[in-house]
Amino acid sequence: ATPGQPLSARRGIMRPQVTHMLGALVIGIGATLIMDLWNLFLRRAFGVASLSYCVLGRWLLHMAEGRLRHASIAAAPRKPYECAMGWTAHYTIGVVFAVGFVALASAEWLSRPTLLPPLLYGIGTVVFPFFIMQPSFGLGIAASRAPRPAQARLKSLVTHTVFGVGLYVCALGVSYVLRVRS
Q1: Is 0.85 topped by the overall pTM?
Q2: What is the mean pLDDT of the chain?
Q3: Is the four-CA dihedral 146, 147, 148, 151 of positive or negative sign?
């Protein structure tokens, strides 16, 4: 774009990138919501507890004070607004993961999504709880110190797999809207 070009021409050059990033935002929120609905189903149908996002907020608020690792995040002092912080962080992380995926995927994928790439990406994101969050919460690498490590690992793996499926399902919706608008 050159300074002498009409504003509409300059906007047209950026439009696909903006559209992709807005699509990634929608995909991230939607995939995170699908993951939350999955966890709600597990809790109501089978009594399987999920991570309390209040604890995530507590961890982040303690981190702001310079404390990353805890012997037990559950025993760490509560912080004001930890629940709001945790839920905000949870959805922000989902959006950041989706933006990362859309940036790695081709524009062609966003117009014609397939399941395998976001499924593998979703599964790959399990490295973050296994190697960052769980050790920092006092649960050890891959929840090795949790009361039932194998169950905790499986829960994390399935939840992140559901997130990957959510990326795909939401991308289908975004691609449909993009085709209708074209």
Answers
A1: yes
A2: 90
A3: negative
Q: Which amino acid is at 150?
A: A
What DSSP state is assigned to residue 77? P
Q: Are 36 and 87 in contact (CB under 8 A)?
A: no
| d(C-alpha 71, C-alpha 2), whole Å | 57
d(CA 166, CA 128): 18
- Per-residue burial over 80-106, b if 16 or more Cβ lie within 10 Å, else e, is eebbebbeebbbeebbebbbebbeebe
Which pair of structure tokens corresponds to residue 21? 């990033």
Write out the two tokens for 146: 């949790």
Residues 89-117 pLDDT 10s = 999 999 999 999 999 997 788 889 999 99
Residue 109's Cβ-count burial label (10 Å; 0-12, 13-18, 19+) is middle
Q: Is 123 exposed, middle or buried (0-12, 13-18, 19+ CB in 10 A)?
A: middle
The owner of tokens 């490590």 is: 149
d(CA 31, CA 95): 9
Q: Are 179 and 43 in contact (CB under 8 A)?
A: no
Phi, psi torsion values for 85, nearest 5 degrees: -65, -45
The closest of 48, 28, 140, 42 to 90, measured between CA atoms, is 28
First to last CA, the chain: 22
Tokens of 37: 């609905």
